[in-house]
Amino acid sequence: MSRFGVEGSLRAWDRFDAILALTALALVGYGLVLIYSGSLGSYDGPTASLENPVVRQGIFALIAIGAMFVISRFDYHVLLHYAWWLYGASILLLLVLIPIGQTDFGSTRWFALGPIQFQPSEFAKIATILLLARFLSEQGGDARDLRVLGGSLAITAPVLLLVFIQPDLGTTIIFAAIWLGMVVVAGIQRRHMLFFGAVFLAVLPFLWTFTVADYQIERISVLLDAEEDPLDAGYNPIQSQIAVGSGQLLGKGLTNGEQTQLDFLKVKTKDFIFSVLGEELGFVGAMALFALFILLLMRGIRAAQIAGDIPGQLIAAGIVITILMQAYINIAVNLSIFPVTGLPLPFVSQGGSSLLTLFLGLGIIQSIVMRHRAYRQF
Amino acid sequence: MSAIGDRRVDPGLSRNRPHGNVGVLRIAVVVLFLVLGARLVQMQIVDGAEYAERSELNRIIVESVSPTRGLIFDRNGQPLVQNSGSFTALITPGFLPEEPGSRYRLYLYLEDLLGIPALQIEEAVTAAEERGQRDLPLPIARALDRETALMLEQVAADLPGVTLSVEPRRVYPGGPEFSHILGYVGPQSPDEWRVLQEDGYAFNEVVGKVGVEARYESALRGNPGTSITEVDAQGDLITTIEHTDPEGGRSILLSIDSDLQRYVYDLLTNTMGEATTAAAVVMSPVTGEIYAIVSVPTYDNNIFSLPDPGEEYQALLDDPRIPLLHQALSPVAPGSTFKIITAAAALQEGNITRYTSRDVDSSVLEFIGEDGQPYYFYDWRVHGEIDLVGAISWSSNIYFYMASCGIPQEGIVGLGANTEQSAIVLGYYARSFGLGQVTGLDIASTESPGVIPSPEWKRRVRSGPLFNPEDRDWYLADTCFMGIGQGDVTATPLQMAVATAAIANGGYLLEPYVTRQILGPDGTLLSTTEPSRERVPVDEEHLAVIRQGMRQSVIDGAARLAALPDTLVAGKTGTAEFIDPEDGITKERAWFTGFAPYSAPQVVVTVFYDLGVGGTKAAPVAADIMGYFLENVEP
User: Fold this and answer.
1) What's the predicted TM-score (pTM) here?
2) Nearest CA of chain B to the CA of A39: how many Å?
């Protein structure tokens, strides 16, 4: 074995963050329950079948958890070492997607690999986090310098633009948040942040007019007044609002939500799974979910805090931001305070590739936590 | 792995990098979840009840269930209408694919299946969308044959927005001779829909348009049921929460005898000669019920349930004879049939008695007009010495000038002290016999009241730039012509039948009706029409004189051709002169109104042709009708 990754790696298991892992498992379990309820109307086959979405999600979860353990065994510096390659591969995949990807609802986001959908932007998130962490740490982990800031922006911008033209507004925002969060952790100066804020505000009208796809404008205007077009673009926001609102304090009971079971809600095991929760388990159920997410994120932030070195800290921060923003945007869509963007709820929504990416991220965080003493610098 | 080691990232490059910024992440987590939590409080706790109500509305569908429309039978129980199914293809624009290309492909598919051009469907859908009726099913093809309907039903599941409906359809098996009585049903007009939706009418529900179908709409329709169901987002039924069955429409038993109606219709159409329109009314002088009411020409009311009645409907509208118009309810000059009313007025007023006689030794009577000029009024023949019975029998014009306007140069006064008063008195009697107003026949149709003129009326309608000032004045001639049913007097055949009935039954003005009984959906009798009668202000002794005159007319007067071998018929002919506006030639309308049997009247018959002579054209036809009636119809 080489020099790195060896020291303390065998002893490291007792530093494995079991709370983080168990919280993630709890979220997946919560998701399985909701997927069960949400798929009652569409799936009526045998319980023990690979066709059963609950079983499928369970199997994906097992695979993903396995992947988490495998990744946590590796020193995250291996990944940092290959960061440029991973990043390059991401760009390539996003480019290839343009001519041959699958187009659904006017947006081209994934490849079909046999029965599995592969979404390059999921992969690109990890790659971008790794490269930003490496770049920023190579510059002393100090984003106060405008050149460092410019360099980090130059890394983020290509993936962000490639995602934006798919178009995928939600993931674009997540990339922007990853960059912003990581440079904040790396100590961006307040005046630089104000400058970027001003540039963003100046460019916004231009973006709105020329580059935001019509469907996004429609979705945003529908958000402002969903009743404007109740059967088309306004349909999902209205139905999810009704579902969540009608759940009230305690919910209608699992599998008893009319909005869910009578199919008024769409994509209810994926993008709108939170509405199922809101309707059937009510405010109390939602608070339980929030508690799990907050616990998970705080454990992630703890990893960033105790990380043994700058790249470890930045990677952990990037992954935390990704999970936070994805959860926030997904739930905000369900609550009609954000336009419909098609982001899954992390750990909860049905979907193998999303689950795999998330647990890979957790695996990297575990790797950071398990090695923080070995790389202790400060 | 050694290659990796060479490029190892040095983690401790800078010792003075700022720390502690991960705290920002904690703040971000807390803030973002607080935002979500606040929104949840608002939606679930504050507005939760409202959303719960909307969730109910979402899935609970309250629909009205259309009842089966009631049937219509003739007096003998012969069905005059049947309910049958009609398949209609419907499009709900709101459920169509949004994308124009797939929409048009759907239209093209329907074009193949239904034979309706895709462009036409597109136009109809666009028009409906512009009216804001996106969610109302729009009929695009009606009266599909069974095979097409089944094919459509099979594919409709794959065509979003396309549905097949089975609509009840009215079939009128009796033939066109019943169209004017029954009328027809049709889709609601926008104005009707605005009113009827309050009564729970469905948008596509048909409604009676004219005739008995319209007049008895509420009875025939019945009471809609209610169905409260839980549906899913596709509108598919999940459970039925509540269901009340509709109460079927009530059935109507007409007083019409369908065989008689057909007989009269055939008789009139076969005796038209030069006439273009004709009408006949057969009614009971006892109850006012109508046994037959015929209008020639007629129309086929079945065309209104055709998928596109446009062409045939247009043909009806273009026909100069106006087949949609009910001739028995349309007013024309009643001519000499009006003399029975003049006679009643004069007898009651006492300006003549049954014994007043006049020697009509010339067919010309010279009047001195208001301007001092002589005017010549004609009779149709030299009658010689005649009394009132003779004057009715032979229909003497000069005798009735004397009875109505008087003969001023001989010092004979008319009905009133002067010309205008005479007209007003005659108008009063005409109205009390039901003229100048609608009879109230229970057929929703354009029944016209006709005109009973008066000096006041003339001043009103002859004003304006088209008339000279002197056109407004009431002259002696106006009263005189009114007395013989000419001039401005108009009456419908039905009004003349009602007036005749009042003379025949000893002075009771009846409200005519075609609906004898209303039956429940199970056939139980719900109600029977009660005859409505009103006394006319003429004593029975005077009416007896008029009946005698009408009897005499059939024995050896102008109505001889109305005689029947074994029944005593009484009647009055009328030959109303008019100037054809097209060629300016004076032509005649043929009238006959009478009753039988003379001593105990059972039936009143009024016959009218727009061209012809009453005594030769209308009288024999009326006799045939009376003969048929007395032999075949149970009153």
Assistant:
1) 0.63
2) 15
